[in-house]
Amino acid sequence: MFWFAEPWSLRYALWMAASFAISALVAWAAIRYARHRELIDLPGQRRSHAVPTPRGAGIGIVVAVLASILALAHAVPAAESGLRLCLPIALVAAIGWIDDHRPLPVLLRLGVHCLAVAIFLKPLLVALFHLTASAPWLETTFWQSAGIIALLGFVCVWSINLHNFMDGIDGILAMQAIFVLIAMAVLCQRYAINVHAFQIALWAAAVAGFLLFNFPRARAFMGDVGSGSVGLLIAIAAIWQNSSPYTAACSGVVAASAFVADASCTLLSRMLCGRRWYRPHREHLYQWMTRTGMSHVRVAAWYMGWNLLVVVPVLYWMNLRPYGAPPKAGTAAAVGIYVAALIVWICGKRWCLYKVKSGSRHGFA
């Protein structure tokens, strides 16, 4: 039985409120700091906002997340393993914080991201090495396992960067992060991975504390310090959920489908067209939607509609199983949802292009 089982609701609420409050207070202080240091995102051709807005308030999320990890490790012995997350999260946040002050080379940022992910995944690689060395009769070899971990590393680095790419309009990244983290926490809690469930829920509360300043009208942006860290947190939450033998393996991939599909399709499209994919642009579907005249609130609502009307039913079906039966892998469902997302992306992009061109002809754009 988890430590806060009785009275679990009160203790749970107090911890969540503390994570929310720390994030909000630090974000508020970061806004004042950004104005003092003139860390302001100005409107421009490649931006989707119309007024100068402070950036870097996502540091509130990072501080609240690190505080929750340290506090939970102190209160619950079973959560002490979470302390190894502090360094990777701090590295991603630090390189983002520096980049928010002065732009850094792409390769330098990518190198730090890879280092942070390697530190996070090192214990898993060491455990697999000892397991395969002590049990040579296992069908899975060390190199096969290392290949799986390398794939996980790629996923983590891609998650850090794609969530940075998708942080372009008011509230969209914070709302997506809250949705994915809550979904992973629910799955972990349902199948008795209680420590991880509680930790992920505290991360969701931290993101919600920042959302106060970012939606429905942004008074501050996350900046790279927040968006990169959130991307890493989502990857960690998905890996933790996948560690349970009772949940569908592809649940995290399905939960993150809205952002993964948009970012991946946009990146592939730019690469196929010979553009420099790492340069700032406004070619994501959500950015095209704002260019048609949709408000940021409406665009964010469309993405949340995908999550609630498509992702939630699929996640429920994937993880629904008779007692004692093995869980579904969910591979077919994941492939299906990404095919659907690809169709939506293509059709949505074509519709947006038509609306923008039509509006330009009639003088509305």
Please explain how this structure is put together.
With 365 residues, this protein is an all-alpha fold. It has one domain (14-361). It has helices at residues 8-37, 59-75, 86-101, 106-134, 142-165, 172-190, 194-211, 223-242, 251-255, 257-272, 285-291, 296-318, 331-361, and strands at 40-41, 53-54. The protein is globular. The protein is 70% helix and 1% strand. The protein has 13 helices and two strands. The longest helix has 31 residues, at 331-361. The model is unreliable at 1-7 (pLDDT under 50). The chain has a two-stranded antiparallel ribbon.
Overall mean confidence score, pLDDT: 86
The N- and C-terminal alpha carbons lie at a distance of 59 Å
Order of helices and strands: HEEHHHHHHHHHHHH
The helix content is: 55-70%
Number of domains: 1
How is the main sheet built? 2 strands, antiparallel
Shape: globular
Please list the strands of the largest sheet in the order they lie side by side: 1-2
Give the radius of gyration. Answer: 21 Å
Q: What is the SS-derived class?
A: mainly alpha
Count of DSSP helices? 13
User: Which consecutive residue ranges, at least 5 long each, have pLDDT under 50?
Assistant: 1-7
* Fraction of residues in β-strands: under 5%
Say how many strands there are: 2
